[in-house]
Amino acid sequence: MNVLERQQEAGLATPTPIINDFSLVVATANGTGSQTANLTLLRSFFKLGIPVHGKNIFPSNIQGLPTWYHIRVSHEGYIARKPSEILVAFNPATAHEDLQELPSGGVCIYNADLKNLPQRNDITYYPVPVGELIAGIDVPVKRKPYIANMAYVGVVAWMLGVSLEVVEEALGAQFDYRPKLVESNMQVVRRAHTWATENLHKQDPFRLEPMNQTEGLVIMTGNEAGALGAVFGGVSVAAWYPITPSTSFMDALREFLPKLRKDENGHPTYTVIQAEDELAAAGIVMGAGWAGARALTATSGPGISLMAEFVSYGYFTEIPAVIWDIQRVGPSTGLPTRTSQGDVAFAYTLGHGDTKHPILFPSSIEECFEFGWKSLDLAEQLQTPVFVLSDLDLGMNNWMGQPFEYPNQPMQRGKVLNAEELEALGGFARYKDVDGDGIPYRTLPGTPHPLAAYFTRGSGHNEQAQYSERADDWARNMARLARKFETARNLVPAPAIDHHPSAKVGLIAYGTTRYAIEEARDRLASQLPTSFLRLRALPINQQVRDFVAAHERVYVIELNHDGQMCGILRAEMPDYAARIHSIAYLDGLPLTARWVQERLLQAEANA
Amino acid sequence: MENLNPASTIKLNAVGLSKKDYDGSPSTLCKGCGHNSIASQIVQIAFELNLQPHQIIKLSGIGCSSKSPAYFLGMSHGFNALHGRMPSVATGALLANHTLKAIGVSGDGDTGSIGMGQFKHLMRRNVRMVYIVENNGVYGLTKGQFSATAEEGLELKYAGHNEFPPVDLCMEAIIAGCGFVARSFAGDAKQVRELLKAALSHRGTALLDIISPCVAFNNEDDSPKSYGYGTKHEQPLHELGFIPYAEEIAIEPLQPGEFRTVRLHDGSLISLRNLDHDYDPTNKLAALERLQRAQETGEFITGLIYYNPERPSLAEVEELNTPLSRLSTEQLRPSQAALQQFLQSYR
């Protein structure tokens, strides 16, 4: 039950103000430029110091299909998706349904041009006379629809008590402080605000009041944060084929690299290639990693499918590579603009034959940045493809975060022998386990020593990298690769654990589902205390085993249908499989705390 | 480099290596396979051109042809990639280190079928490398299916009758923007060598489509990719001579109309004896027309079919300077102050 419902149940005729704790949804048609207006609202709330998060629920379409932008503010800091109490109805195609979904006591701000809007007597309506408000504004005709969205910004600001100075500052950031653009947009905001002040009577309880909870924080998308992490991780070759929702990762990379990565003579210390498909993107990354570059690609599920053959190759020939998978809903084309955690099982063992890969799971922009550089280190340390599994929700939406910490360790380039070392050693065997950690030594093409060269092949090979079909060579090599994977367990980021001393129930999750789970845990604190382990990577380490061992029941909560991580954890810990249970769901939308709460109570009732 | 052959009787080249130093492992291909002959020519020219093995990478896809990089230049890094995917791997490797010389070996199946997309995009990007297609019109490793370059109407024991027209890889390369397109015959060792040398000097991708008869599955004399057919129907466009830039050689006076000398971008020269009257390898349309005509008459023309050194290579387009693989940590990771400053605009 939300605040509003509680108040209505208590029979409050004039609801007491609801301050800094509600959700707002803006419903528009795709391609009408509403994103600028929505981000202006988001940034305004952020500048007021109130914890805020925005989620764009958009269609796979360039123009015309419905899109919704959800903004949640929470003085408690909760940012998971939550049904909205306030609707900005600007899309005639969905207005009817959007209105039905409003809870009693909600607010509907609507474009006054909308005809036949259903009338509910349990919500407050505020019209926005868009045509009137944009009349006479000096902008080209084709920009009129964009400007029109600023009208709801003005009315929302009025309704929530946001000052126009704050809106103007937020708007400025949206337009790179270009005066003409800022002014023409601001003109509409002001007019709408004035109109609302003069013509509307505030009847709803929702208000914003300044806080100091966002001071010093940054606001950024996960894709931007990941790309920035890669820039600081020394990525030098990036190749990709455009696919939603990974495209903005590469866009960010191509924007940031020229700003941050020129050498003393102005030459780029990177290159970014748009490949002809994901097969080629993976091939370019493999070739570059083999030859000594720090190489990455970013893609999504369908791209991962195409990269499977090269990932199998990279695992077996031991080539460093980083693959960002910004997950969307599959199978097949699926819901290409909706979020999911559906590639976990596929990515973990991607490839034909016995393959397994380290996977990092960022849950925040801070972790996107951290894993951005760390994944490049891990790939070279382990000489293998490393996945970073983000998702559309994290990748494409704006999130608050602490300013990123500069990498806290020197760049790890792994076991690479140079000419002097080769001379001292008298040569090397490419696939020999010298140190007992399963990780062999390699050389880079161009190393000026007659013993530097070796032959990389996807076919069977012995320790000297020579072609071999011998049974013992094959078995020994695969055993070493398995040993290397054991080494990876303690090299990848350790889980984040919140241990509750008296909890019998443990929760395991990864990535962005944490926000709904953290909120649900707080709400259940007295009724059902739980411990929480957030996986930050696969393969798991001993801490995960210990966590499972310490709880009677463990629920693995995830955003896919089949409980993919649950399956992996059961297989990793067969002795504990019976106590590991799945709570999994996927409909294209991020989880809500309420859903997690209900499903947990239900599961416990049946336990 | 250290002299690996102290015995003074062995002839050494200018970088102190013997021809044997350019050998690879013993070939596991069939005896008499045209591919082995091409491998020998690569060994020969690498020795003659005084190439440093560590500055060469050799790459391939999958198939009989693609096995062959193991059989030459044993002191060079090799990369036997996936079927049809050598171009992307080469692209990545040469972006990581654009100062390396790359020799790619592919086959007609590897290039003309499964790898057609990557082949054409490699040409489009003009990645600087020698791309050899050992073309026999047949899938050898899987025992004799037709490849996409097999002639229409060809009869083979295993595959039967070929119903489809052939893909002409030289035409495909020209259309895709390749600036060095040559065809040769594995049995014509001298021409293969001269073309290889010139290709190594080219600024971008250099395609050598070398008809390399399959002794096991496609060597009936009436098959255009057999030895018998090759020796009978080969029509050299020119007689070639290659002069590396570094060597000082007195060029014999050329007879007007008899020779066309083409200067490669690094200054070295290739001279063509123009056997085919009026043939101009710098004319794109003429090159395509000549290839089309040869296909219609069942001949294969050999020599440098098309040459255009104007397009910059991918590394030039990307403005690469210090090889990316050699950058220091300091060059790869911006400073802490840079991070703090950058984040300002996201507050």
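qc> Chain A has a mean pLDDT of 95.
qc> done
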